[in-house]
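Incident log, structure service

09:12 report received: a user says their structure output differs between two submissions of the same chain.
09:20 pulled the input from the user's history:
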Amino acid sequence: MNNILLIEDESSVANFIRKGLSEEGYTVSVAFSGDSGLQMATETRYDLVILDIMLHDKNGIDVCKELRRLNISSPILFLTALGTPENIAHGLNSGGDDYLVKPFKFIELNARIKALLRRSDPKENSDDHNSVYSLGGLKLNDEAKTVERNGTVINLTATEYRLLLVLLKNKGKVLSRIDLLESVWDLTFNMGTNVVDVYINYLRKKIDSDYDTKLIHTVIGMGYVLKET
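09:34 re-ran on a clean worker, output below:
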């Protein structure tokens, strides 16, 4: 049974979502403010966080950034009335994994949740027998869900991890932004956003910035490749 944290300050919306997800078999905890949501997320491990942006005490974007700063890697689904392409890009670039605009249909919310949980479930992602991938001192153990470089542990969010896994599985191969959107985000995002480039930069800071040998390379006009040079 999956454990979900809902951070939503409108009680009617929160009760509607909690009731619907409970009927789907999820365990749902509700935080009615950003501060209480942050506290709950640090005290309990949740399989998924549903987060409003327009909270009365704190902007949901700031909550998301703080969760990521605390190395809380649970998938984050923004659920908000702010629906412009700029809002969506901002949410995804702050560390969110998906973005759904209010008003919404519950069937779509449920589908998004299932997709996020499926992508973060190690059993669902074991598509081959190999569980350890390595390159240039970088090692990813897909069974243990750990990443390290030269013995130093690297903490990644769920989306950063999936992106690195795709790059490692295709090391030496140039992957276009479309390839990465399809593999990592299931094309649930607005194609006009720069989310791929932003997450590539996140990965570079974590796995390349402290090393002379860079592993993530941009191929101008084509995409990205993971390789030693």
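09:41 both user submissions now match this output. Likely a transient worker issue. Closing.
09:42 reviewer note: The longest strand covers residues 3-7. Residues 106-120 form the longest helix (15 residues).
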